Amino acid sequence: MWHFTGFVIGLVVPGMVVVMGVSALSGAPVAGGQALSESLNQKLAFAFAKHQKLILLGGSSVRYGYSAKYIEETLGIPAVNLATNLGLGRKYLLYYARHAVRNGDLVVLPFEYQLYEKEKPDTVKSIQVLAFDQGFLSSMKFLERLDFLVHVEVLDWVRLALAKFLLVDSPERRPSNSLLNEWGDETHNPRSLARPERVKALQNAFRRSFKLDTQAIEDIVEFGNFALERGARVIVAYPNMLRGALDIEGNAAFLRDIKIILESKGIPVIGTPESVLFNESEIFDSIYHVNNEWQIIGSLRLVRGLEEMGLLHMQALGLTAGD
After folding, report:
1. SS3 (DSSP) at 243
2. Exposure check for the chain: N or C terminus, fewer CB within 10 A?
3. Other CB atoms closer than 10 Å to residue 38's CB: what's the count?
4. What is the C-alpha separation between 297 and 305, in angstroms, rounded?
């Protein structure tokens, strides 16, 4: 009995010390993380100012791939682009979006395919959560919180501690700030920065098989139920992606299961994986990033698809699916 009690104490007490000690890192001025945190807060402020809106959520493919400004100004549908960085992970993105969801909202999730897989540690997520949003930790159960902290990379702990207590950060790791408009869209993608040989390398490097994680389905369905309780709806869409970078045949079961399983649980899935593939001339700088011309095309295609599902009514705006 005492051996078991000692085992439990030896497991739980250190865990409690770690969890409580983490609060000391809150506000650590990590430069790159600070810029991301500021953009996340800025996007939420844009969302709070709109009612009965279209919310776009995902990683950078959504940030670059859609124009909430075009959707609102041209199509007359209030919209905000909450998309940020794939590295934040599925769980954090859905947690973050909960702050913005209101009655009458329509949330569209064109999640990158990695977000359907088992979550992995990521520096972007670790820095954001530990330095700028420990509310995410508070939203977890104790063992989930402990698991998150255990999987934070050692170098990330070191970087956070140096930034917090010695005000030291690594300049070479500071990303340039993205240029956002007041709808939360990325505006720094005017033309392609990828040369033909670079495009080919991107296509070949990324072709891989994806494995659907059941927890991903559960997280999305849970978020969908959360939205419904607040009078909002959640729709899933396939992500924009460079043609040739996705092995459609090799991932046929994965792509099919996303639609079949989510729709069986009440989450509609719009479009097809093929319909959102873009060409080499439309790339900005990665397999997920398009230039601003395709950004408009993708936005209009999305809205037309939502209208065809009866979720938006473009006819009332003087538009038809053939315009």
Report:
1. coil
2. N
3. 13
4. 12
Where do the domains of the chain lie? 29-120+177-311
Question: Cα separation of 132 and 84, whole Å?
Answer: 15
Question: Residue 225: how many CB atoms within 10 A of its CB?
Answer: 13
29-120+177-311 is classed CATH 3.40.50.1110: yes
The string of DSSP codes covering 286-311 is ETTEE-HHHHHHHHHHHHHHHHHTTS
Q: Which residues have a Cβ under 8 Å from the Cβ of 77 and sit 6 or more positions away?
A: 53, 54, 71, 303, 312, 317
Question: What pLDDT digit, counting tens, does each position of 102-143 carry?
Answer: 999 999 999 999 999 999 999 999 999 999 999 999 999 999
Cα 123 off chain centre by? 15
Stated pTM of the model: 0.86
Q: Sort strands 233-237 and 269-270 into parallel, antiparallel or unpaired.
A: parallel
Write the pLDDT tens digit of every residue in 227-268: 999 999 999 999 999 888 899 999 999 999 999 999 999 999
CA distance 168 to 242: 38
Rounded Cα distance between 250 and 209, Å, is: 7
